[in-house]
Write a structure and sequence with these properties.
alpha/beta, ABC transporter transmembrane region fold, six-stranded mixed beta sheet, four-stranded antiparallel beta sheet, 14 strands, elongated, disordered C terminus
Length: about 575
């Protein structure tokens, strides 16, 4: 299975390389020129040695001609190597750019279920760290593999032209080097794969700790966090050390075998020279070729270990790219425009884990312009209902319709464009306050942005910021309070009011005085718009047209605030649990 996965990974890498065949061919040609010139140099050296017969017997005229040729060979070799490196760098970084782009674009098409179910740090590690590791291996492969294989072939040709018997002794011993290199490389692939996984787990832990540093500090989780980090770091250390140790055995092992080759050439060559079969210059040339012949085997063995790491990292990136995408919209799906807002939930069933049902046979009818409040204990399905309505998750059975059109047959973009959302978890991007408010309407005029901020009661604190609406805020909004961040999110929706609204604990982080003002703005905003309000604080939903009381994925009560209190059921208990003190106070 591992071999099959490796072959498949290599095949996919080659598919990414295929568009750059011209640079590949040019690189091969330049590698051929480099090798030919490099192997021609020892031949010149051997001829130069033979021209120095003894003291006072040196042919300086012929020697000068050889030295000029030698200088030309060095210059041309350097130029060819430089151009080859440019080609290899171009191929590598274009391939890596395409892989990273494909991985990120695919990430944007993955269902929310995948993002929720996988550590964010590991996903980031695949796109950044693993691709970087792949880059190093691919670059080394392109730079050294071509020249190494051509050097082996070239030196064999040159050695055969000098003495075939000595060449045979070289060829007989050298395969041991390849056997050792392939044996070690074969057994290090899974080690490098384990190393990449450990690196992803460590990245995920660090990302979580940085993102939730305040929570870590508040709950004095530092020591446990450090222990977890040390454990993950130890795993990475052990996996990395094991992979590096075994892969590093390749070089000394092949060097030992190559030294045997060099010694054999020296012995057989010396005997041949003594017997007059070859000259001293040819022996020097042969020793140089023997050294150049064995050197590529060291390089190939080193590249093999690096390529194992690169292939293991590439496999993790391809695993991400192979994740099933969100089911695309059909060509004939309905584009929702200016909906009235009549929404029906018909026998909805949904489960996060199919064996364990969560919502079953859920039914709800919402009329145009109604304000629907959803309440219930934590985990009862309030937010899940919103996720299904927005198609962040797909329902297992049943249907949701808007103005008679099934949401499953409405394009996702048009569906989500017609909903405005303010969530309990605020989200801001790195940029100015102005850009964050205008996120859903980038072409909004300044007057529109300021009006939306005033409606959200955010204008006053924005004006107190160093640069007002042009103040730069971080992704986490570190220079803003949680309430201020939520006000900016509310302003974002108020700038671009769609026909339907979802307010999921939209005022949970806002002080009571500001909340009253926001509720007034919401009341104005919700006029004529179908609205869903998820709330824990029941005081915020008294004016709702209908309150749904949920428990374990089902509606157990529904009605207005007064009707539900008169029933004396679960809602009555929830309400009194929040306001028992006020109601019992004389």
């Amino acid at each position: 299975m591992a071999k099959k996965n490796q072959r498949e990974t290599i095949r996919r890498i080659l598919n990414y390389v295929k568009p750059y065949w011209f640079f590949m061919c040019l690189s091969v040609l330049l590698a051929l020129i480099t090798v030919a010139l490099t192997l021609y140099a020892p031949l010149l050296t051997g001829k130069a040695i033979d021209l120095m017969i003894s003291k006072g017997k040196v042919d300086f005229t012929a020697l000068m001609s050889i030295l000029i040729k030698f200088a030309i060979v060095i210059i041309l070799t350097a130029a060819a190597q430089w151009l080859m490196n440019i080609c290899n760098n171009s191929i590598t970084y274009k391939v890596v750019k395409n892989i990273r782009t494909d991985a990120f674009l695919h990430l944007t098409k993955l269902p929310i279920k995948y993002i929720d179910g996988n550590a964010h740090g590991d996903i980031i590690s695949r796109i950044i760290s693993d691709v970087d590791q792949f880059t190093d291996g691919l670059l080394m492969g392109f730079t050294q593999l071509f020249t190494s294989f051509m050097t082996i072939i070239g030196t064999l040709i040159f050695m055969i032209s000098i003495d075939i018997k000595i060449t045979i002794s070289v060829v007989v011993i050298t395969p041991l080097s390849l056997f050792v290199a392939s044996f070690i490389a074969k057994h290090t692939y899974h080690m490098f794969h384990a190393q990449a996984q450990a690196k992803g787990a460590l990245t995920s832990h660090i990302e979580e700790m940085i993102g939730k540093q305040k929570v870590v500090t508040a709950f004095t989780y530092e020591e446990r966090s450090i222990r977890e980090f040390e454990q993950l770091n130890k795993t990475l250390h052990n996996d990395g050390l094991k992979a590096t140790f075994f892969s590093s055995l390749t070089n000394p092992s092949t060097r030992f075998i190559n030294s045997l080759v060099y010694a054999a050439v020296g012995v057989f060559g010396a005997i041949s020279a003594i017997n007059g079969k070859i000259s001293i210059g040819e022996l020097s040339c042969f020793l140089s070729y023997a050294n150049q012949y064995t050197k590529p085997f060291n390089e190939i063995s080193s590249v093999a270990a690096e390529l194992q790491n690169a292939i293991a990292c590439a496999a993790r990136v391809f695993e991400l790219i192979d994740e099933p995408e969100e089911t695309p919209d059909n060509a004939d799906d309905y584009i929702l425009t200016k909906p009235a807002g009549n929404i029906d939930f018909n026998n909805i069933s949904f489960s996060y884990n199919p064996p364990a049902p969560f919502i079953t046979n859920f039914n709800l009818n919402v009329k145009n312009g109604q304000r629907i409040a959803i309440v219930g204990p934590t985990g009862c399905g309030k937010s899940t209902l919103i996720n299904l309505l927005m198609r962040f998750y797909e329902i297992n059975n049943g249907s949701i319709t808007i103005d008679g059109h099934q949401t499953a047959r409405i394009t996702r973009n048009s569906l989500r464009h017609n909903f405005g959302m303010v969530l309990q978890d605020t989200w801001l991007k790195s940029g100015t306050i102005r850009e964050n408010i205008a996120y859903g309407k980038p072409d909004a005029a300044d007057d529109e942005i300021i009006k939306a901020a005033k409606l959200a009661h955010a204008h006053s604190f924005i004006k107190r910021m160093p640069n007002g609406y042009d103040t730069i805020i971080s992704e986490e909004g570190g220079n803003l309070s949680q309430g201020q961040k939520q006000l900016l999110c509310i302003a974002r929706v108020m700038l671009n009011l769609p026909p339907m609204l979802i307010l999921d604990e939209a005022t949970s982080s806002i002080d009571t005085r500001t909340e009253l003002k926001i509720q007034q703005a919401f009341a104005e905003m919700m006029k004529g718009r179908t609205s869903f309000i998820v709330a824990h604080r029941l005081s915020t939903i008294k004016e709702a047209d209908c309150i749904l009381v949920m428990k374990q994925g089902n509606i157990i009560e529904q009605g207005t605030h007064e009707e539900l209190l008169l029933k004396g059921g679960f809602y009555y208990q929830l309400y009194n649990s929040q306001y028992a003190t006020q109601t019992n106070t004389p």
